[in-house]
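Contributing: when you submit paired examples, paste them exactly as shown. First protein:
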Amino acid sequence: MSRLRAGLWWGLLLALAPIALPQALWTRRTALRLPKAAGAQSGLAGAGQGGEPLRLLLIGESTVAGVGVEAQEAALAGQLAQALSLRLQRPVAWRACGENGITAGEACERLLPLALSEPADLVLLVFGVNDTTRLSSLARWEAALSSLSRTLNGRGARVVFTGVPPIQHFSALPWLLRCLLGLRAGLLDSELRRVSAQEQAQYARLELQFVDEYLARDGYHPSALGYRVWGEGLAEQITRSV
């Protein structure tokens, strides 16, 4: 069924390409580009809590790099670590291994070797936006997700995938691109759910309202509030499954 839906999507894209392509080129030229979060890419949340720290690793795209906020403590890594520490009543030692613009397949080559330099108990994989916008095939997407999950699971880590963001709500994009890419993101998210079940990894829904206060000024990445709400929602889902 997913292959049929993918074929229908390609047909729709081909029909709308004379309108969509100029919009995509215009958006690429005019989009506001924010830097990644500055400062340390690792830290400790809940230092006052007792017990051995949970070793948390995030691997992914620009949201793991912290684009949209000034420091990683305010981005997804820091906010998730803080929320997990409060829920688990133990310290959380976190690391963020992210790269702006990277796909899941590229992360297997560039980020995974770096991520494996230190052991981790819990790994959050955050991908989908770049695979959507760069039109990664479902086969390539599936292969990359499986490779990441199996490698990390083989190192003894618990693997959690975040849902693919609903690009139809990204205000930085023109309406037609939001619709087309939103449909594509839905296809990748369906495949992500299937791979998560197949690889015995957890799928965590992206529970975030895409309203102005939750978005950075580029209309594309989360704001500090958006990261906090996202991190709290992830922590709730992760600890529910412990």
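Second protein:
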Amino acid sequence: MLDIHLPLMLFVLALFLILLVLLNNMLFQPLVKFMDDRDNSIAKDLKAAKGLSGNSDELNAKAEENISAAKNEAAKIRQKAIDGEKSLAASKVETKQSELDKKYENFVEKLAADKENLKNSLLSQMPLFKESLKAKFSKL
């Protein structure tokens, strides 16, 4: 049967306790320390990421504000250019209109002068027409 040897049992117990102490010092404590450090590092990184996320929201808002201001400024510049071109076109139209009005007035004056000249020439040749008509009627 089985015999119980007290010295052997005490030796195994002492060996077990020594092994527990060595494993605790060499394996378990460094492993627990490593896991705690890792948890702390993860928590610190999450906190930094949240801080950067809040900062990026602020930067996005500033960027949107800058884009909006740039669009407004571009619209003002575009409107100013359009207004300038419209005024330039209006002045060109006005200049051309006045030029055409002057040409029209000159044409009307020349036409009136030609009309008067034609009327005078017809009136000066009226006695000649009368004589030619009398000659033709006398032949009939």
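If you have annotations for the second protein, write them as plain sentences, like these:
The CA atoms of residues 33 and 82 lie 72 Å apart.
The two ends are 183 Å apart (CA to CA).
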